[in-house]
Amino acid sequence: MTPNSSRYSWRRFTPRLFTCLAGYNRETFSSDLIAGLTVGVVALPLAMAFGIASGVTPQAGIYTAIIGGFIVSFLGGSRIQIGGPTGAFVVIVAGIIAQHGLSGLLMVTMMAGVLLLLFAVTGLSQAVKFMPRPVVIGFTNGIALLIASTQIKDFLGMRIPEPPSEFFERMRVLAESIPAIDPIAVGLGVVSLAAILVSPRYLPRVPGAVVALVLGTTAVALFDLPVETIGSRFGGIPSSLPAVDVPRFRADLIIPLLPSAFTVALLAAVESLLSAVVADSMSGDRHNSHAEIMAQGVANLVVPIFGGIPVTGAIARTATNFKSGARTPIAGIVHALTLLVIVLVAAPLAYHVPLATLAAVLFVVAWNMGEWREIGDILKLDLAEKSVWVITFALTVMADLTVAVETGVALAALLYIRRVTETTSVTRVTPEYLIEGRAHILQDKDIPPYVSILRIHGPFLFGMTDKLAEATENLDELGSIVILRLRNMTAIDSTGLHALEELSDRLRRSGRTLLLCGARRQPAAFLQRAEFIDHVGAENILPHVQAAIERARELYEGRHAA
Q: Taking a C-beta distance cutoff of 8 angstroms, is the pair 291, 13 a contact?
């Protein structure tokens, strides 16, 4: 490798912050400051709730948000990404603690950090895109259900020993403990849930979780309500900086903990890159995935030293950051510093935070992260795709996340092989074939200047869909009508379908129209079954490129005639 190529390779990890500081001014800082303060306040109840739900202390969640959030914003590859603890890790963290204790969790998190650094340096982070959509939806649905089930005890105020970690056994214990329900805690939880759901209508600038936290804490403090609080269970939150304590390294646990560490690293990569993509769609920016994964690796390597839990990109907090006016990673740094100030100044107030309120917060988090609306789309797919989703979901709930992800990816890989092999065909060239093919070729067609034609060559399955996003990154370079030629696309799956839907939505928002033409048998049948035709309109799906160009002329003339 030459010196120049070496410099180029390391340039890939340049933090987004460094490129954003050019031209940074007082107006930009004002926007970042307001956004950072807002998302810092929003992150407080979520960080505490994720810490408690994971089986650690609430301050562990807060320390994760402070230190992890700072590192992700300082070193990351996204302009507005917010890092911290998320619901994706709750189930696996709780399982690791139950089996190996807190020291095992800290070791797993650091191992995951090392794996993420390896992913970034070797380029293996790009392998994250090989997570097919049914697998992602399946384990997301399962995690959301498990998170909600872990909060039933606190929401109902049941003062019973912690229920078993196994889902059905937990539900049995909770059902048998119905006489232990505390009406006051239930009332507080219901009011908190209502505040989270209703307050955005009347206080759109104040997050519902913050409203619920203030109302619940105030009610407990003023009326001395006899419900469980952070103070009664954990003794409150220390108003000091987290202590530095390097976890004891145990070589004998490396092999047993490696599957869990790999799952944490994979989830961190998937969640952070998904959040970065969402951030790009909102801000119009394009994140640096290499720098982002590198930052996630550093964060997960450092956070355990301060007693924290796994870190990743947080979609909800990133969206709040954008809506609050964030322009650069400085907003994420301000968010971390805001949390630090809250801990140092207002930690004693956390003593009265009711656990029923935090349970209500996590109920809403579970609902929002569950992607339940996607289930309807999954059910429209073929039996093989539905089977991958069902098995991943069932294993997440009944076994554990590591087994679910491994099995789901293995099944999807087999499905991938099957789809590719099905597309191979051997046919004889006949005069009829040549005549039929003339309508599909481009060489003799008069393509109007307002038309852009894209083509997909080969199978359009999971792991390949980012190529479409890269080809259409700058929509301003495309005409007002975009024709996607599918003549040489041999196969498609649900991940490819989702990519087409996203392209259609992006083009529509930009005032452009998408036409599809020439789909072969498997893609055509798949698009029909998934009701994608309703998404773009049956009149915009054409048999060949000649018909698509004629349809484009019709649309163009209709617009200008009006």
A: yes
